Amino acid sequence: MDPREALRLAAQSLRANKMRSVLTLLGVIIGIASVISIMSLGKAMQQQVLADFEQFGLNDVNVQVQGRQPVDGTETLYAFDDVPDSALITPDMADELEAYLGGKVQGIALEGGSATARITRGLNEGRATVSFVNDDYVAVQRLPMTAGRLLNDDDITGDRSVAVISPEVVERYFNGDPESAIGATLDVDVEGRFASLQVVGAYGRAEATSVLATTWEEAMLYVPYTAKPKLSAEPLQGFRTLQIRAASKDLTDQVAADAATWAERAYAEDPDYTAKVLDTKRELDQVNQTMATMSLVVSAIGAISLLVGGIGVMNIMLVSVTERTREIGVRIALGATRRAVRMQFVAEAMMICLLGGVLGILLGTAIGMAGTSALGTMVLPPLGAVVISLAFSLAIGLFFGIYPANRAARMNPIEALRHE
To answer: Sign of the CA dihedral 376, 57, 203, 205?
Structure first.
């Protein structure tokens, strides 16, 4: 039988039983739609999480002072907190690294510790965390400025008593008006050490683009690290970590390699400690792999409904074969081969599943786009998921259509003609 003739007869049969065909299609449509919508939502959430990680610094190059690994491969004897002051990265070393990296970096963030302080302005009193940082720190954290300016190099070298404050500090001490905070002073008390800090900038909350990412809501004051001796009993000797932001994502690997070269050279004469570039890309790859696996597992669960739909297709094809027993007998008696009869019913089952697959893809795309739009990142379903869904629906039609088709092809034409 000509395949086109088989498709024509299949379409004719579907039109003759519209309601039954629609009900049969529903199982396939729901299965395909669930897979497509889940894959779309998974893709959108993956993009959002990656964007959040990039915003919050996972793609940055982080350098950390650690104890050297013994030559024999045993565990290091030096914990991160046990790094002595003499092994820390000094401001001069950080300047040397920034000059070495040149235009490949946006900045190098340094934090020389933090302290909990009592903050007073007039009769208003509260507590906040004072963080001792360099001029690049706030910029590298990508905190959006709402008023004033960031810390600058003059603040650091001039040992100025200035601060950039968080939204919580603005809300508590300046009635939520960041403009009114600029130029004002805050009295800071850290365990009996007092200082008056002039507010030069205020930042807002960095908005997370995904529901999985969170932002810290804490009263913070970022002050130059050179101000630490005024407010802390511990003098600043250096920094345990550096956070380096590349000028572009394409330069991240090169910056990491250059930073590793610098660290090896800077600590070449230290037998116990070194500075190591942390591999955050491995963590990012693990997140990607985990989310992709979760999408596949949930999609596989959704695909179970396709099997249910396939069983429905087989059931309806068996009913169709029973109803059309006399027709099958007439065709065989007139010379139709068993192969032609088999092709007719297989084509009908595959047409049902193909049509259900196309409608399911359209429905799943609509649901996925609506869901991803609600998440804030509207995406189209992955092309691979669409192709696999169509192929799977055709495979379902072929698998569950073979048995009814074989049953029709094996009919005895005499008994079929006598069937009422």
So the answer is: positive
